[in-house]
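User: Fold this; tokens only.

Assistant: Input:
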Amino acid sequence: MTQQHKTTVGSIHEDVLAFTAGRDVQLDRALIEFDCIGSAAHVTMLSRMPVAPPLFSADERDAVVRELVGIMRDARENRFDITLDDQDVHLAVERALTARLGDLGKRIHTARSRNDQVALDLRLYAKDQLLGAQTETTALARALIRLAEKHRETPMVGRTHMQKAMPSSVGLWASAHAESFMDDLALLQSAYKSNDRSPLGSAAGYGVPLPIDRALVASLLGFEGTLHNVLHANNARGKNESVILFAMNQIMLTLSRLAQDLMLFTMPEFGYFTLPREYCTGSSIMPQKNNPDVLELVRGKSARVLGHALAVFDIVRNAPSGYNRDVQEAKEPFMEGLATTRACVRIMTALLENITVNEEALLRGFTPDVFATDRALELVGEGMPFRDAYHHVKEHLQELDTMDPKASIARKTHEGTTAGLDFAWYHQQLASLEQDATEKRDAWHTALSALLTHPYPALA
């Protein structure tokens, strides 16, 4: 005989319960802390709402927040469970509060829905993840700039169509990838700004007939403001996640191209760089192997993160206005996309900090034809029309035998080229990006510390 499960929101067939809860019981562990923080802001607002009698007295509000902090501590020590009967983190926290505080716990859901609760939890989760990603990606860009600055005068063959093209340098190559990450970070900042608005108080998407103060809740939670329209606050679920994931995909795109370069340039036939042995893996049959598995996996994971972004986009693109349960399916790819991107950034930073540059191999890569364009432009400087110089060099490649790679890259002094890289500017930009993340995190944590009346994130 099938069993009916009694839940906080009614009885439900056990198969339907398992199907509709999906992976939320597992995934929502990452949201316990944020759900408690959101509830702390909500009960604080309810305690100040101008109604008589008040829904929560100041003492009752303090008691609820105290228990919420206790749940956060329990969750950090794996002492708080989300059960299938709970269905999700929201009802698990409400169950725990009711068990500890009786009727106070039953009143906590006043003027909100699980729709705006989960939207809030995911935005708080995203704030934390985006700031972490910004800090980590800045560190990766800095590792590349340090490599570029150290080897700014180390020649390296520049390539087009993967064929030898013109003289370049390790400095130009490494800082090009760094600057790409800096562009990606600008998109990450934009995604953060879009995310930095509170949906709480929109309830099921149509507001509530109570004088709630949504702006107060947003301020208590350290958001820049609210999602003004309550229906839009609901509709933005999923779209917001896709915006963040597409920003993450730009980081993964840069990572994938960097990984591909390193796989090529560490091949024995090139030998331009040597990967640290501890970041390579061996073979089960070939004792000599040191495989660039980290780089290959980064390249592969870039496709996975793109898949996560497209999955979220596709889940919501045909959704009608208002809440629809299938948006729940966006949670897992969203969380996995964030986690995968950050893991790739961290491992690549460590790898680059320990890479070896082989100058002799880099110099061996130069052949006379690499200097053809440089020689043509030298002739232009002596008064020959460019097209005549082009054909002269094409017909007299033997004249290039004495060209010097180091002298060639030293002559290119205009902005952004081998001898024109502005490392002071790079360091300034990276310091600004790092400071931006630090200031945002400090301001957010200060707001949460005041809300919880405990220093956050320490919760001491």
